[in-house]
Amino acid sequence: MELSSYIIEGKLKVRVMPKAGRNQVNEENGKLKVYLKEVAEDGRANVALVKFFKKEFGIAVEIKNGFTSREKVLRVL
Q1: CB-facing half-sphere around the CA of 58: CA atoms within 13 A
Q2: Which of 11, 21, 61, 72 is the most exposed place for a label (fewest CB within 10 A)?
């Protein structure tokens, strides 16, 4: 999947689905939905999200907004 069309002004909006059966990103209705195996407790899903983007796409990101929400804005570093 090519992410460049989703990155606007160095930011990437995603919806995170923790406690999924797989780590995967899908495009649904023009938006990115990220499925993570990790549970959303003590920020573990947030850490898994950052690691997932580094491993799968080779890009470093940090969470800019949405630390406690499924809707997140990531800043591409």
Answers
A1: 3
A2: 21
Task: Catalogue all structural domains in the chain, each as residue range(s) with its CATH number.
Answer: 11-76 (3.30.1200.10)
Helix ranges (H only) for the chain are 44-57
DSSP letter, residue 38:
S
- Report the C-alpha gap between 35 and 47 in whole angstroms: 13
Binned at pLDDT 50, 70 and 90, residue 2 comes out as confident
For residue 15 the two structure tokens come to 């919806």
CA atoms of 25 and 59, how far apart (whole Å): 14
Cα–Cα distance between 64 and 69 in angstroms, integer? Answer: 12
What is the distance between the alpha carbons of residues 16 and 70, in angstroms, rounded to a whole number? 5
Cα–Cα dist 32/76, whole Å: 15
